[in-house]
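U., I forgot to send this yesterday:
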Amino acid sequence: MTLPVTDLLALATTIKAWGQELGFAELRIADIDLQHAEAGLLAWLDAGYHGGMDYMATHGMMRARPAELVPGTLRVITARMNYLPANGSDDWRASEARRLAEPGAAVVSLYARGRDYHKILRSRLQQLATRISNEIGPFGYRVFTDSAPVMEVELATQAGLGWRGKHTLLLNREAGSMFFLGELLTDLPLPVDAPVSAHCGSCQACITACPTGAIIGPYRLDARRCISYLTIELKGSIPLELRPLIGNRIYGCDDCQTVCPWNKYAQRAVLPDFDVRNGLGQAALVSLFAWSEDEFNRYLEGSPIRRIGHERWLRNVAVGLGNALTAGAPPGPLLAALEARRGHASALVREHVEWAMACRVGTGSSCPRECTANP
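Result:
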């Protein structure tokens, strides 16, 4: 479809307004030329920083070439949607710090305390595409949300939604980094938006705060050490030397975001879908470890957490329980919870339970050397 330039300008403005009506905080339009990012992506993959995420290497340079992913693509409408729960603590950063300091508390990443963002954003992007089609007629498009080989942050940076922070996430002057990204790849030759300048300056807060040292340098992340990777993407055993550093984080990690000065401007979600559900903002390790598989699936229906399954859920919580023991939490309930899982059918669960039970303080037990680090 060919539209006059003036019509394309007007259409772009209208699309952005429609996006905000659908719950997106902001939409901008990117060109598809990402050649400048290919060398960095290849170097990251060659270094093995993607760990066991083999799909990252499988698609290779397609990530930097949207027109190969969806032939005919000329532009990418990139959108961000705030997810900081509206029903969370007013001083959310201080609240998160307190929870991390409570050994028996179970800390779930803020983005995962509500409904699965993949479904929410895809649905809203599809509604946007339908509205465009109703306005101009059929056009070529596909929508994605963290579900395809797309360099989301690079496209968002190119479109001016923000700049890449040293923790590799997108930062926005008005909203920090507490938002999701989604894309609508289209064959419409819409006018592109200009990028914005970076504003991290000499700040190293995210690098210093990373519990496992996964941010190995500005703009360089070794996913193999990242707690989000270890508790979500990793399918097998969590490396012994990293277990004590995970503390009580059982699904994801927000540390590099909570310390970022720009997140004092983080905006609350406008959609109730991202409200905290099932008490995940105040849950205890012992309680979550007691969930049967049926309870896990029932309580977390519609949650992004369900993707890891009950086995890895127990693996993660077991590590949290072990670290709670190391930190000097009252051992009785923790050990009783672990003892109840010692005979679990999964070897993965049993291994992490045994490790956790050895992490007792002042009992003379044979605590693993790796358990003595400060969690």
